UniProtKB/TrEMBL annotation:
Protein's name in the database: Cytochrome P450 family 4 subfamily A member 45, pseudo
Annotated residues for binding of heme: 463
Swiss-Prot/TrEMBL GO biological process terms: arachidonate metabolic process; icosanoid biosynthetic process; kidney development; lauric acid metabolic process; linoleic acid metabolic process
Source taxon at top rank: Eukaryota
Family note: Belongs to the cytochrome P450 family.
PANTHER family given in the database record: CYTOCHROME P450 4A11-RELATED, CYTOCHROME P450 FAMILY 4
PROSITE patterns for this protein: CYTOCHROME_P450
Keywords, sorted A to Z: Endoplasmic reticulum, Heme, Iron, Membrane, Metal-binding, Microsome, Monooxygenase, Oxidoreductase, Transmembrane, Transmembrane helix
First-listed, main subcellular location of the protein, grouped into a coarse class: endoplasmic reticulum
Transmembrane segments: 17-38
Organism per entry: Macaca fascicularis (Crab-eating macaque)
Amino acid sequence: MVCSSPRARQNTNASRLLGSVSGILQVTSLLILLLLLIKAAQLYLHRQWLLKALQQFPCPPSHWFFGHFQKFQQDQELQRIRKWVEMFPSACPLWLWGGKARVQLHDPDYMKVILGRSDPKSHGSYRFLAPWIGYGLLLLNGQTWFQHRRMLTPAFHYDILKAYVALMADSVRVMLDKWEKLLGQDSPLEVFQHVSLMTLDTIMKCAFSHQGSIQVDRDSQSYIQAISDLNNLVFSRVRNVFHQNDTIYSLTSTGRWTHRACQLAHQHTDQVIQLRKAQLQKEGELEKVKRKKHLDFLDILLLAKMENGNILSDKDLRVKWTHSCSRADTTAASGISWILYALATHPKHQERCREEIHGLLGDGASITWNHLDQMPYTTMCIKEALRLYPPVPGISRELSTPVTFPDGRSLPKGIAVMLSIYGLHHNPKVWPNPEVFDPSRFAPGSAQHSHAFLPFSGGSRNCIGKQCHEQLGPTLTPRFELLPDPTRIPIPTTCLKKSNGSRRF
Protein backbone atom coordinates (compact mmCIF):
# COMPACT_ATOMS: atom_id res chain seq x y z
CA MET A 1 0.00 0.00 0.00
CA VAL A 2 1.39 3.36 -1.08
CA CYS A 3 0.52 6.46 0.90
CA SER A 4 0.94 9.97 -0.50
CA SER A 5 2.44 12.59 1.70
CA PRO A 6 0.63 15.90 2.43
CA ARG A 7 3.23 17.74 0.37
CA ALA A 8 2.62 15.49 -2.66
CA ARG A 9 -1.14 16.03 -2.37
CA GLN A 10 -0.57 19.79 -2.20
CA ASN A 11 1.59 19.69 -5.32
CA THR A 12 -1.08 17.67 -7.13
CA ASN A 13 -3.84 20.10 -6.12
CA ALA A 14 -1.74 23.06 -7.19
CA SER A 15 -1.06 21.45 -10.56
CA ARG A 16 -4.75 20.77 -11.06
CA LEU A 17 -5.60 24.36 -10.08
CA LEU A 18 -3.00 25.75 -12.48
CA GLY A 19 -4.31 23.46 -15.18
CA SER A 20 -7.87 24.64 -14.56
CA VAL A 21 -6.84 28.31 -14.64
CA SER A 22 -4.85 27.72 -17.81
CA GLY A 23 -7.83 26.02 -19.41
CA ILE A 24 -10.16 28.88 -18.44
CA LEU A 25 -7.71 31.44 -19.85
CA GLN A 26 -7.45 29.49 -23.09
CA VAL A 27 -11.23 29.27 -23.45
CA THR A 28 -11.58 32.97 -22.59
CA SER A 29 -8.92 33.90 -25.12
CA LEU A 30 -10.65 31.86 -27.80
CA LEU A 31 -14.01 33.51 -27.00
CA ILE A 32 -12.48 36.98 -27.16
CA LEU A 33 -10.76 36.13 -30.43
CA LEU A 34 -14.05 34.76 -31.81
CA LEU A 35 -15.92 37.91 -30.76
CA LEU A 36 -13.26 40.09 -32.37
CA LEU A 37 -13.49 38.09 -35.58
CA ILE A 38 -17.30 38.41 -35.57
CA LYS A 39 -17.05 42.15 -34.96
CA ALA A 40 -14.46 42.52 -37.71
CA ALA A 41 -16.71 40.58 -40.09
CA GLN A 42 -19.66 42.82 -39.18
CA LEU A 43 -17.61 45.94 -39.80
CA TYR A 44 -16.37 44.58 -43.12
CA LEU A 45 -19.87 43.64 -44.29
CA HIS A 46 -21.25 46.99 -43.17
CA ARG A 47 -18.48 48.82 -45.02
CA GLN A 48 -19.18 46.82 -48.17
CA TRP A 49 -22.88 47.69 -47.88
CA LEU A 50 -22.00 51.38 -47.48
CA LEU A 51 -19.63 51.31 -50.46
CA LYS A 52 -22.41 49.91 -52.62
CA ALA A 53 -25.03 52.31 -51.20
CA LEU A 54 -22.81 55.36 -51.77
CA GLN A 55 -21.35 54.42 -55.14
CA GLN A 56 -23.35 57.19 -56.87
CA PHE A 57 -21.71 59.82 -54.65
CA PRO A 58 -17.97 60.37 -55.27
CA CYS A 59 -15.70 61.70 -52.52
CA PRO A 60 -11.97 62.29 -51.85
CA PRO A 61 -9.85 59.23 -50.97
CA SER A 62 -10.19 58.01 -47.38
CA HIS A 63 -8.34 55.72 -44.97
CA TRP A 64 -9.94 52.28 -44.56
CA PHE A 65 -10.31 52.75 -40.77
CA PHE A 66 -9.86 56.44 -39.92
CA GLY A 67 -11.88 57.58 -42.92
CA HIS A 68 -11.57 61.31 -43.62
CA PHE A 69 -10.92 62.27 -40.00
CA GLN A 70 -7.21 62.75 -40.66
CA LYS A 71 -8.12 65.45 -43.21
CA PHE A 72 -10.30 67.31 -40.71
CA GLN A 73 -8.35 69.15 -38.07
CA GLN A 74 -10.76 70.64 -35.54
CA ASP A 75 -9.98 74.29 -36.34
CA GLN A 76 -9.99 73.66 -40.10
CA GLU A 77 -13.13 71.55 -40.51
CA LEU A 78 -15.33 74.27 -41.97
CA GLN A 79 -12.55 75.40 -44.30
CA ARG A 80 -12.27 71.81 -45.58
CA ILE A 81 -16.04 71.70 -46.12
CA ARG A 82 -15.80 74.78 -48.35
CA LYS A 83 -13.22 73.04 -50.55
CA TRP A 84 -15.35 69.90 -50.79
CA VAL A 85 -18.43 71.93 -51.69
CA GLU A 86 -16.57 73.34 -54.70
CA MET A 87 -15.72 69.80 -55.85
CA PHE A 88 -19.05 68.17 -54.93
CA PRO A 89 -21.71 70.91 -54.90
CA SER A 90 -24.69 68.62 -54.29
CA ALA A 91 -23.53 65.94 -51.86
CA CYS A 92 -20.44 64.13 -50.68
CA PRO A 93 -19.90 61.12 -48.39
CA LEU A 94 -17.80 61.72 -45.29
CA TRP A 95 -16.18 58.54 -44.00
CA LEU A 96 -15.78 58.38 -40.24
CA TRP A 97 -13.56 56.12 -38.18
CA GLY A 98 -14.43 52.43 -38.00
CA GLY A 99 -15.95 52.18 -41.47
CA LYS A 100 -18.93 54.43 -40.68
CA ALA A 101 -20.09 57.10 -43.09
CA ARG A 102 -22.61 59.88 -43.52
CA VAL A 103 -23.57 61.83 -46.62
CA GLN A 104 -23.14 65.60 -46.39
CA LEU A 105 -25.70 67.59 -48.38
CA HIS A 106 -24.87 71.05 -49.74
CA ASP A 107 -27.64 71.58 -52.30
CA PRO A 108 -30.98 73.37 -51.64
CA ASP A 109 -32.97 70.81 -53.66
CA TYR A 110 -31.44 68.00 -51.60
CA MET A 111 -32.19 69.96 -48.40
CA LYS A 112 -35.79 70.49 -49.43
CA VAL A 113 -36.33 66.77 -49.97
CA ILE A 114 -34.94 65.76 -46.56
CA LEU A 115 -36.60 68.57 -44.60
CA GLY A 116 -39.92 67.67 -46.18
CA ARG A 117 -39.71 64.17 -44.69
CA SER A 118 -40.08 62.96 -41.11
CA ASP A 119 -36.79 61.09 -40.72
CA PRO A 120 -35.56 60.89 -37.09
CA LYS A 121 -32.48 62.61 -35.77
CA SER A 122 -29.34 60.53 -36.24
CA HIS A 123 -28.74 58.84 -32.89
CA GLY A 124 -24.95 58.70 -33.20
CA SER A 125 -23.64 62.06 -31.99
CA TYR A 126 -26.88 63.56 -30.70
CA ARG A 127 -26.98 61.06 -27.83
CA PHE A 128 -23.91 62.73 -26.31
CA LEU A 129 -26.09 65.77 -25.59
CA ALA A 130 -28.60 63.76 -23.52
CA PRO A 131 -26.78 63.98 -20.12
CA TRP A 132 -26.73 67.76 -20.51
CA ILE A 133 -30.01 68.82 -22.16
CA GLY A 134 -32.05 65.63 -21.72
CA TYR A 135 -34.61 64.42 -24.22
CA GLY A 136 -36.34 67.65 -25.20
CA LEU A 137 -37.36 68.91 -28.65
CA LEU A 138 -33.84 68.54 -30.05
CA LEU A 139 -33.49 64.82 -29.32
CA LEU A 140 -37.07 63.53 -29.42
CA ASN A 141 -38.62 61.94 -32.50
CA GLY A 142 -42.02 60.84 -33.71
CA GLN A 143 -45.26 61.36 -31.81
CA THR A 144 -43.51 62.32 -28.56
CA TRP A 145 -41.71 65.15 -30.32
CA PHE A 146 -44.98 66.30 -31.88
CA GLN A 147 -46.72 66.41 -28.48
CA HIS A 148 -43.91 68.46 -26.94
CA ARG A 149 -43.76 70.84 -29.91
CA ARG A 150 -47.52 71.38 -29.80
CA MET A 151 -47.39 72.08 -26.08
CA LEU A 152 -44.61 74.67 -26.35
CA THR A 153 -45.67 76.46 -29.55
CA PRO A 154 -48.10 78.86 -27.74
CA ALA A 155 -45.11 80.34 -25.86
CA PHE A 156 -43.92 81.78 -29.19
CA HIS A 157 -47.23 83.40 -30.19
CA TYR A 158 -46.78 86.77 -31.92
CA ASP A 159 -48.69 88.59 -29.19
CA ILE A 160 -46.08 87.35 -26.69
CA LEU A 161 -43.16 88.14 -29.00
CA LYS A 162 -44.33 91.73 -29.38
CA ALA A 163 -43.91 92.29 -25.66
CA TYR A 164 -40.47 90.67 -25.75
CA VAL A 165 -38.92 93.37 -27.94
CA ALA A 166 -38.79 95.91 -25.11
CA LEU A 167 -37.30 93.31 -22.75
CA MET A 168 -34.67 92.40 -25.34
CA ALA A 169 -33.76 96.04 -25.83
CA ASP A 170 -33.41 96.48 -22.07
CA SER A 171 -30.97 93.55 -21.84
CA VAL A 172 -28.94 94.98 -24.73
CA ARG A 173 -28.85 98.38 -23.01
CA VAL A 174 -27.40 96.79 -19.85
CA MET A 175 -24.69 95.11 -21.92
CA LEU A 176 -23.80 98.29 -23.78
CA ASP A 177 -23.64 100.22 -20.50
CA LYS A 178 -21.08 97.67 -19.30
CA TRP A 179 -19.11 98.11 -22.50
CA GLU A 180 -18.96 101.87 -22.05
CA LYS A 181 -17.42 101.41 -18.61
CA LEU A 182 -14.81 99.07 -20.08
CA LEU A 183 -13.81 101.41 -22.92
CA GLY A 184 -11.44 103.32 -20.65
CA GLN A 185 -9.23 100.25 -20.29
CA ASP A 186 -7.91 100.85 -23.82
CA SER A 187 -7.77 97.13 -24.65
CA PRO A 188 -9.77 94.89 -27.02
CA LEU A 189 -13.04 93.56 -25.65
CA GLU A 190 -13.93 89.88 -25.99
CA VAL A 191 -17.63 90.15 -26.76
CA PHE A 192 -18.74 86.52 -26.69
CA GLN A 193 -18.91 86.24 -22.91
CA HIS A 194 -20.83 89.52 -22.67
CA VAL A 195 -23.23 88.49 -25.44
CA SER A 196 -23.80 85.12 -23.77
CA LEU A 197 -24.81 86.82 -20.53
CA MET A 198 -27.03 89.23 -22.46
CA THR A 199 -28.85 86.43 -24.31
CA LEU A 200 -29.30 84.48 -21.08
CA ASP A 201 -30.64 87.65 -19.43
CA THR A 202 -33.06 88.10 -22.34
CA ILE A 203 -34.26 84.50 -22.19
CA MET A 204 -34.74 84.70 -18.43
CA LYS A 205 -36.83 87.86 -18.75
CA CYS A 206 -38.88 86.82 -21.76
CA ALA A 207 -39.45 83.13 -21.17
CA PHE A 208 -39.22 82.79 -17.40
CA SER A 209 -40.58 86.10 -16.02
CA HIS A 210 -37.29 86.87 -14.27
CA GLN A 211 -37.14 90.27 -12.63
CA GLY A 212 -34.00 92.43 -12.79
CA SER A 213 -30.81 91.67 -14.69
CA ILE A 214 -28.51 88.68 -14.27
CA GLN A 215 -25.68 90.22 -16.31
CA VAL A 216 -23.92 91.27 -13.11
CA ASP A 217 -24.61 87.99 -11.30
CA ARG A 218 -21.42 85.93 -10.87
CA ASP A 219 -23.42 82.70 -10.53
CA SER A 220 -24.78 83.30 -14.02
CA GLN A 221 -21.25 83.76 -15.35
CA SER A 222 -20.26 80.36 -13.97
CA TYR A 223 -23.36 78.90 -15.66
CA ILE A 224 -22.35 80.44 -18.99
CA GLN A 225 -18.85 78.96 -18.58
CA ALA A 226 -20.36 75.53 -17.86
CA ILE A 227 -22.50 75.74 -21.01
CA SER A 228 -19.47 76.78 -23.08
CA ASP A 229 -17.46 73.88 -21.64
CA LEU A 230 -20.23 71.40 -22.41
CA ASN A 231 -20.47 72.53 -26.03
CA ASN A 232 -16.75 72.05 -26.54
CA LEU A 233 -16.66 68.76 -24.63
CA VAL A 234 -19.48 67.27 -26.70
CA PHE A 235 -17.83 68.17 -30.01
CA SER A 236 -14.51 66.87 -28.73
CA ARG A 237 -16.09 63.58 -27.73
CA VAL A 238 -17.68 63.10 -31.14
CA ARG A 239 -14.21 63.19 -32.71
CA ASN A 240 -12.54 60.80 -30.27
CA VAL A 241 -12.84 57.12 -31.18
CA PHE A 242 -11.99 56.06 -27.61
CA HIS A 243 -14.72 58.20 -26.00
CA GLN A 244 -17.75 56.70 -27.74
CA ASN A 245 -18.56 54.24 -24.97
CA ASP A 246 -20.35 55.89 -22.02
CA THR A 247 -18.64 53.79 -19.35
CA ILE A 248 -15.13 54.36 -20.69
CA TYR A 249 -15.83 58.08 -21.16
CA SER A 250 -17.07 58.45 -17.57
CA LEU A 251 -13.67 57.21 -16.31
CA THR A 252 -11.67 59.80 -18.25
CA SER A 253 -10.75 63.28 -17.04
CA THR A 254 -12.91 64.89 -19.74
CA GLY A 255 -15.79 62.60 -18.78
CA ARG A 256 -15.56 63.74 -15.17
CA TRP A 257 -15.31 67.34 -16.36
CA THR A 258 -18.49 66.86 -18.39
CA HIS A 259 -20.26 65.41 -15.36
CA ARG A 260 -19.29 68.40 -13.18
CA ALA A 261 -20.39 70.89 -15.84
CA CYS A 262 -23.74 69.09 -16.20
CA GLN A 263 -24.25 69.24 -12.44
CA LEU A 264 -23.57 72.98 -12.38
CA ALA A 265 -25.95 73.63 -15.30
CA HIS A 266 -28.68 71.50 -13.73
CA GLN A 267 -28.31 73.20 -10.35
CA HIS A 268 -28.82 76.58 -11.98
CA THR A 269 -31.89 75.26 -13.82
CA ASP A 270 -33.41 73.74 -10.67
CA GLN A 271 -33.00 77.03 -8.81
CA VAL A 272 -34.89 78.92 -11.54
CA ILE A 273 -37.73 76.39 -11.56
CA GLN A 274 -38.09 76.29 -7.78
CA LEU A 275 -38.08 80.09 -7.59
CA ARG A 276 -40.87 80.38 -10.17
CA LYS A 277 -42.90 77.62 -8.48
CA ALA A 278 -42.58 79.47 -5.17
CA GLN A 279 -43.80 82.67 -6.81
CA LEU A 280 -46.85 80.89 -8.24
CA GLN A 281 -47.76 79.64 -4.78
CA LYS A 282 -48.21 83.19 -3.50
CA GLU A 283 -51.79 84.22 -2.89
CA GLY A 284 -53.51 85.22 -6.10
CA GLU A 285 -50.43 84.78 -8.28
CA LEU A 286 -51.52 81.49 -9.87
CA GLU A 287 -54.95 82.83 -10.77
CA LYS A 288 -53.34 85.96 -12.20
CA VAL A 289 -51.16 83.82 -14.46
CA LYS A 290 -54.10 81.66 -15.57
CA ARG A 291 -56.03 84.79 -16.60
CA LYS A 292 -53.22 85.87 -18.95
CA LYS A 293 -54.21 85.63 -22.61
CA HIS A 294 -50.82 84.14 -23.47
CA LEU A 295 -48.48 82.40 -21.04
CA ASP A 296 -44.70 82.62 -21.14
CA PHE A 297 -42.53 79.56 -21.60
CA LEU A 298 -42.02 78.48 -17.99
CA ASP A 299 -45.63 79.15 -17.01
CA ILE A 300 -46.75 76.86 -19.82
CA LEU A 301 -44.45 74.14 -18.49
CA LEU A 302 -45.57 74.59 -14.90
CA LEU A 303 -49.27 74.56 -15.74
CA ALA A 304 -49.17 72.03 -18.56
CA LYS A 305 -50.51 68.53 -18.31
CA MET A 306 -49.47 65.73 -20.57
CA GLU A 307 -52.22 63.84 -22.36
CA ASN A 308 -52.28 61.16 -19.65
CA GLY A 309 -53.23 63.84 -17.12
CA ASN A 310 -50.01 63.81 -15.11
CA ILE A 311 -48.41 67.13 -14.23
CA LEU A 312 -44.86 67.46 -15.49
CA SER A 313 -42.28 66.35 -12.95
CA ASP A 314 -39.39 68.58 -11.87
CA LYS A 315 -37.12 66.45 -14.04
CA ASP A 316 -39.37 67.00 -17.08
CA LEU A 317 -39.38 70.72 -16.37
CA ARG A 318 -35.60 70.77 -16.12
CA VAL A 319 -35.19 68.90 -19.40
CA LYS A 320 -37.38 71.34 -21.30
CA TRP A 321 -35.90 74.38 -19.57
CA THR A 322 -32.31 73.20 -20.09
CA HIS A 323 -32.92 72.35 -23.74
CA SER A 324 -34.61 75.65 -24.51
CA CYS A 325 -32.38 77.91 -22.44
CA SER A 326 -29.00 76.27 -23.08
CA ARG A 327 -29.37 75.73 -26.80
CA ALA A 328 -31.11 79.05 -27.42
CA ASP A 329 -28.47 80.87 -25.40
CA THR A 330 -25.48 79.25 -27.12
CA THR A 331 -26.82 79.51 -30.69
CA ALA A 332 -28.08 83.06 -30.18
CA ALA A 333 -24.83 84.17 -28.54
CA SER A 334 -22.77 82.63 -31.33
CA GLY A 335 -24.94 84.14 -34.06
CA ILE A 336 -24.99 87.61 -32.48
CA SER A 337 -21.24 87.62 -31.89
CA TRP A 338 -20.59 86.82 -35.53
CA ILE A 339 -23.08 89.48 -36.63
CA LEU A 340 -21.12 92.03 -34.63
CA TYR A 341 -17.86 90.74 -36.10
CA ALA A 342 -19.23 90.97 -39.64
CA LEU A 343 -20.27 94.59 -39.05
CA ALA A 344 -16.92 95.39 -37.42
CA THR A 345 -15.03 94.12 -40.47
CA HIS A 346 -17.31 96.00 -42.89
CA PRO A 347 -17.45 99.56 -41.53
CA LYS A 348 -19.43 101.00 -44.46
CA HIS A 349 -22.27 98.56 -43.88
CA GLN A 350 -22.04 99.12 -40.13
CA GLU A 351 -22.37 102.88 -40.55
CA ARG A 352 -25.34 102.50 -42.86
CA CYS A 353 -27.10 100.28 -40.30
CA ARG A 354 -26.43 102.81 -37.56
CA GLU A 355 -27.78 105.66 -39.69
CA GLU A 356 -30.90 103.65 -40.52
CA ILE A 357 -31.69 102.91 -36.88
CA HIS A 358 -30.82 106.39 -35.64
CA GLY A 359 -33.02 107.87 -38.36
CA LEU A 360 -35.88 105.70 -37.23
CA LEU A 361 -35.50 105.98 -33.47
CA GLY A 362 -33.76 109.29 -32.99
CA ASP A 363 -31.84 109.76 -29.73
CA GLY A 364 -32.89 107.68 -26.77
CA ALA A 365 -36.06 106.11 -28.19
CA SER A 366 -36.66 102.43 -27.46
CA ILE A 367 -37.19 99.97 -30.25
CA THR A 368 -40.67 98.41 -30.55
CA TRP A 369 -42.29 95.62 -32.54
CA ASN A 370 -43.53 98.09 -35.16
CA HIS A 371 -39.96 99.25 -35.84
CA LEU A 372 -38.73 95.82 -36.90
CA ASP A 373 -40.21 96.00 -40.41
CA GLN A 374 -38.77 99.49 -40.92
CA MET A 375 -35.08 98.44 -40.83
CA PRO A 376 -34.60 96.75 -44.21
CA TYR A 377 -30.87 97.35 -44.57
CA THR A 378 -30.05 96.26 -41.02
CA THR A 379 -32.12 93.13 -41.60
CA MET A 380 -30.23 92.46 -44.84
CA CYS A 381 -26.90 92.76 -43.01
CA ILE A 382 -28.04 90.42 -40.25
CA LYS A 383 -29.16 87.79 -42.75
CA GLU A 384 -25.91 88.04 -44.69
CA ALA A 385 -23.92 87.59 -41.47
CA LEU A 386 -26.03 84.53 -40.61
CA ARG A 387 -25.36 83.18 -44.09
CA LEU A 388 -21.60 83.50 -43.63
CA TYR A 389 -21.64 82.32 -40.02
CA PRO A 390 -24.69 80.12 -39.37
CA PRO A 391 -25.12 79.46 -35.60
CA VAL A 392 -25.61 75.72 -36.23
CA PRO A 393 -23.34 74.47 -39.05
CA GLY A 394 -25.25 71.25 -39.67
CA ILE A 395 -28.02 68.86 -38.58
CA SER A 396 -28.24 65.09 -38.96
CA ARG A 397 -31.00 62.72 -39.99
CA GLU A 398 -31.17 58.95 -40.38
CA LEU A 399 -33.18 57.82 -43.38
CA SER A 400 -36.22 55.80 -42.26
CA THR A 401 -37.10 54.99 -45.89
CA PRO A 402 -35.16 55.14 -49.17
CA VAL A 403 -34.93 58.54 -50.84
CA THR A 404 -34.42 59.67 -54.43
CA PHE A 405 -33.15 63.18 -55.09
CA PRO A 406 -34.18 65.43 -58.01
CA ASP A 407 -31.05 64.52 -60.00
CA GLY A 408 -31.96 60.83 -59.86
CA ARG A 409 -29.38 59.71 -57.31
CA SER A 410 -30.75 57.75 -54.36
CA LEU A 411 -29.87 56.50 -50.90
CA PRO A 412 -31.25 53.45 -49.08
CA LYS A 413 -32.89 53.27 -45.67
CA GLY A 414 -30.51 53.47 -42.71
CA ILE A 415 -28.03 55.95 -44.21
CA ALA A 416 -27.13 58.95 -42.04
CA VAL A 417 -27.23 62.29 -43.83
CA MET A 418 -25.78 65.58 -42.63
CA LEU A 419 -27.56 68.69 -43.85
CA SER A 420 -24.51 70.94 -43.98
CA ILE A 421 -25.97 74.40 -43.49
CA TYR A 422 -22.49 75.87 -43.59
CA GLY A 423 -21.76 74.06 -46.86
CA LEU A 424 -25.08 75.22 -48.32
CA HIS A 425 -24.43 78.85 -47.36
CA HIS A 426 -20.94 78.71 -48.90
CA ASN A 427 -21.90 76.81 -52.05
CA PRO A 428 -20.73 78.89 -55.06
CA LYS A 429 -23.47 77.34 -57.23
CA VAL A 430 -26.09 78.66 -54.81
CA TRP A 431 -24.42 81.92 -53.70
CA PRO A 432 -21.98 83.51 -56.22
CA ASN A 433 -18.78 84.69 -54.52
CA PRO A 434 -19.94 83.09 -51.26
CA GLU A 435 -17.07 84.44 -49.12
CA VAL A 436 -17.94 88.06 -49.92
CA PHE A 437 -20.13 89.94 -47.42
CA ASP A 438 -22.90 91.26 -49.66
CA PRO A 439 -26.18 92.27 -47.94
CA SER A 440 -27.79 92.98 -51.32
CA ARG A 441 -28.33 89.22 -51.67
CA PHE A 442 -31.29 89.73 -49.32
CA ALA A 443 -32.64 92.94 -50.82
CA PRO A 444 -36.45 93.06 -51.09
CA GLY A 445 -37.56 91.26 -54.22
CA SER A 446 -34.31 89.30 -54.66
CA ALA A 447 -34.83 85.82 -56.02
CA GLN A 448 -33.41 82.85 -54.15
CA HIS A 449 -34.23 79.19 -53.67
CA SER A 450 -36.68 78.51 -50.82
CA HIS A 451 -34.05 76.33 -49.13
CA ALA A 452 -30.91 78.30 -49.97
CA PHE A 453 -30.85 80.11 -46.61
CA LEU A 454 -31.42 77.93 -43.55
CA PRO A 455 -29.75 79.47 -40.46
CA PHE A 456 -32.58 78.06 -38.32
CA SER A 457 -33.10 74.82 -40.27
CA GLY A 458 -36.43 74.32 -42.06
CA GLY A 459 -39.49 72.16 -42.35
CA SER A 460 -41.55 71.02 -39.38
CA ARG A 461 -38.47 70.78 -37.14
CA ASN A 462 -37.20 74.30 -37.69
CA CYS A 463 -36.05 76.33 -34.70
CA ILE A 464 -39.07 77.08 -32.52
CA GLY A 465 -37.42 80.29 -31.33
CA LYS A 466 -36.57 81.58 -34.82
CA GLN A 467 -38.62 84.76 -34.40
CA CYS A 468 -36.81 85.57 -31.15
CA HIS A 469 -33.44 85.45 -32.92
CA GLU A 470 -34.71 87.67 -35.72
CA GLN A 471 -36.13 90.20 -33.26
CA LEU A 472 -32.99 90.40 -31.16
CA GLY A 473 -30.77 91.29 -34.10
CA PRO A 474 -31.99 94.85 -34.83
CA THR A 475 -31.66 95.83 -31.16
CA LEU A 476 -27.90 95.25 -31.31
CA THR A 477 -26.61 98.15 -33.37
CA PRO A 478 -24.34 99.75 -30.78
CA ARG A 479 -24.15 103.35 -29.71
CA PHE A 480 -20.46 103.38 -30.67
CA GLU A 481 -18.30 102.11 -33.51
CA LEU A 482 -17.13 98.51 -33.69
CA LEU A 483 -13.60 97.74 -34.84
CA PRO A 484 -11.99 94.27 -35.13
CA ASP A 485 -8.85 93.27 -33.26
CA PRO A 486 -6.33 92.78 -36.11
CA THR A 487 -3.97 90.78 -33.90
CA ARG A 488 -6.47 88.00 -33.20
CA ILE A 489 -8.57 87.12 -36.21
CA PRO A 490 -11.22 84.50 -35.36
CA ILE A 491 -11.67 81.34 -37.39
CA PRO A 492 -15.15 79.76 -37.52
CA THR A 493 -15.27 76.24 -36.10
CA THR A 494 -18.02 73.71 -35.48
CA CYS A 495 -17.96 74.38 -31.72
CA LEU A 496 -17.97 77.47 -29.53
CA LYS A 497 -14.21 77.43 -29.00
CA LYS A 498 -12.54 79.91 -31.34
CA SER A 499 -9.10 79.21 -32.69
CA ASN A 500 -6.50 81.93 -32.92
CA GLY A 501 -8.28 84.15 -30.45
CA SER A 502 -11.93 85.15 -30.63
CA ARG A 503 -14.32 87.88 -31.61
CA ARG A 504 -12.55 90.82 -30.00
CA PHE A 505 -13.21 94.51 -30.67
